[in-house]
Write a structure and sequence with these properties.
The complex is a heterodimer. By secondary structure, chain A is mainly alpha-helical. Chain A has helices spanning 2-39, 42-59, 67-92, 100-110, 112-117, 120-131, 134-144, 149-156, 160-183. In chain B, helix 1 (6-15) packs across helix 3. Classes of the chains: A mainly alpha, B alpha+beta.
Chain lengths: 184, 393
């Protein structure tokens, strides 16, 4: 009987693994893109994507109808958490308070290629985004991570007609946040 | 006509080129309203300004190496619990039944295991075919995720034929379902108020598959892994297990709203504590002729001994399997203790197994009687499910 039970478990595992691979192929790039809007760093965005897919795989079946929406929301949430941790780490690093510019400079010096890729605007925007209330930061990262209104609505669990309103509000908050930053 | 709100104007600005259009009333209003046109212009300018902030393209990624990296992680998890039951049920991705069956994962394993039973009497057929198994009762064997993860892969020491995935079809009446399945369908005598009277009948066709034990393959697989194969008894080598699953009838009653567990809530954006309701059938009753498992050589005891001696089988699991008093008549049902609970009950005068989802989402009972297997389950309480099962006539 153990044979049959194994057969049952294994047939299902193989099918689930195939479904997970298809999900990964379809959504990996978008999960990275969403995280990248918050982190402005390819490596960190890919690290977030690893955690998001790992967590999903551990907890949920890949053929769940809400799989993509779960991944999108988790991408934004995990990236925002990672941004918070990074900010905290940087504040405590090297025993002195560093400015954002110091931090980016240090990172760029450590990685010439990153420096070459670096865009001042990208950094400033991402940092401002990460300081917004989570809902606002999320809707912006989803939209500019490449999601449609319909997909954003699914990820946030709101009606599609609310997405525009949320975006308008988040955009105003971001502009305000950037206004403080860029003039400083 | 009221003004078009900024949210809709924003969508028009962002997705107008992708085909989004205001409805006729709103479009007509916009065409004649200077105020709305001004606000649309503002929204467009604002959207463009924000888009410029994010004009830096997201990095190009390759999913292949990223997936390889994920799989290389030490604790790469087994796939999330197997919705086997769903694959057996005559439902599609859009059928809400899937939503509550997702969490009822051990139930899924139960259902398939039940579908792999032999209920015909013990004894030899012609050509030396043995009936392997005559279960008269079900028993829960607690398993953990980790134990399931290390189970040996059957394809390591044999070859399986893969049957086609059967496609379910909806039929118009109980009689038609009964005719397709070849049994008399039992009907509930009374139902809880929460169960809808709207009934759907579906038939899942049968299929058969076989598995051939292969000592040479077992040795080759072990060698490739740098290990020594567990000796395969002479009787087991070359032995063919044949599993025949008969058509099954599924009777679904209406739909109701249930709350999703936490994981699913996160997906839909509901805040902690908020109730995320989903529509599912209020009751499912399934019935089929008991499937048949036959062997051309080895006995159940020989096969069980061989499988339980494989390195991936956790000692606790092997012990639990061996401790079953009468292995020829008891079907061990793996129950993931973190998600399910199972207990023995009397149903229709025979021993059955009652399974509850750990989150209280629903419960189900399975039993076998008169050469058939039965399943009654839904987003109901244990005693409701039992009452329905006992009331079937």
């Amino acid at each position: 009987m153990a044979t049959l039970v194994n057969r049952a478990v294994y047939a299902s595992r193989a099918a689930d693994e195939r479904a997970f691979e298809a999900l990964f192929a379809a959504e990996y790039g978008r999960v990275v893109a969403i995280a990248y809007r918050v982190l402005a760093d390819r490596q960190e965005a890919e690290d977030v994507a690893q955690e998001v897919f790992y967590d999903f795989h551990r907890r949920h079946p890949a053929d769940a109808p809400w799989a993509a929406a779960w991944l999108h929301k988790a991408a934004a949430h995990s990236a925002l958490n990672a941004a918070l941790r990074r900010a905290r780490r940087d504040r405590h690093a090297a025993g002195h308070v560093r400015t954002e510019a110091d931090r980016w400079q240090a990172r760029d010096e450590a990685d010439p290629q990153r420096a070459a890729e670096a865009s001042e605007q990208r950094r400033v925007v991402a940092e401002a985004l990460a300081r917004l209330p989570e809902r606002s930061a999320t809707v912006l990262s989803l939209r500019y991570g490449g999601l449609s209104y319909a997909e954003i609505a699914l990820a946030l669990g709101v009606g599609v007609n609310q997405v525009g309103t949320l975006l308008n509000r988040a955009e105003a908050a971001l502009r305000k946040e950037l206004g403080h930053d860029t003039r400083g | 006509m009221t003004h078009v709100d900024d949210g809709l104007l924003r969508r028009l600005a962002d997705e107008g080129e992708q085909g989004f259009a205001l409805d006729a009333d709103a479009a007509a209003h916009l065409a004649g309203c200077a105020d709305c046109q001004t606000r649309l212009a503002t929204v467009i300018a604002s959207a463009q300004a924000t888009a410029a902030l994010f004009s830096d393209p997201a990095p190009a990624t390759e999913w292949g190496p990223a997936l390889a990296r994920l799989r290389a992680r030490e604790a790469y998890p087994a796939p999330a619990p197997a919705p086997i039951m769903e694959r057996m049920l005559p439902v599609t991705v859009h059928n809400p039944l899937r939503r509550w069956l997702k969490p009822l994962t051990a139930l899924a394993v139960v259902a398939l295991a039940a579908a792999l039973l032999v209920l015909t009497p013990l004894g030899s057929y012609a050509q030396g075919v043995l009936n392997l198994f005559t279960p008269r009762q079900f028993v829960a064997v607690p398993v953990t995720d980790a134990q399931l993860r290390t189970l040996p892969d059957l394809s390591d020491f044999g070859t399986m034929t893969h049957p086609q995935q059967p496609a379910p079809r909806t039929v118009s009446s109980a009689d038609e379902a009964a005719a397709a399945v070849g049994v008399t369908l039992l009907k509930p005598t009374s139902l809880p108020k929460s169960v809808s009277s709207q009934v759907t009948y579906q038939v899942m066709p049968g299929n058969s598959t076989s598995y051939t034990f292969d000592a040479a393959k077992a040795e080759a697989t072990a060698r490739a892994k740098g290990k020594t194969a567990t000796a395969m008894p002479k009787n087991v080598n070359g032995s063919v297990l044949a599993v025949t699953v008969y058509p099954a009838a599924f009777v679904s009653y209406g739909e109701s709203q249930i709350s999703l567990p936490e994981g699913a809530k996160a997906a839909t954006g509901a805040k902690r504590g908020e109730t995320q309701a989903r529509s599912v059938p209020t009751l499912v009753i399934a019935q089929a002729k008991a499937p048949v498992v036959q062997s051309t050589g080895a006995t159940l005891a020989e096969i069980q001994d061989y499988i339980l001696a494989q390195p991936g089988i956790a000692p606790e699991l092997a012990a639990a399997m061996r401790s079953i008093a009468d292995p020829m008549s008891t079907l061990p049902v793996p129950v993931d203790v973190s998600r399910m609970n199972g207990r023995a009950v009397k149903v229709q005068g025979v021993d059955g197994l009652l399974l509850g989802d750990a989150t209280g989402l629903g419960s189900a009972v399975v039993w076998s009687k008169d050469g058939q297997v039965f399943f009654v389950g839904g987003p109901l309480r244990d005693n409701e499910v039992l009452d329905i099962a006992n009331g079937l006539k």
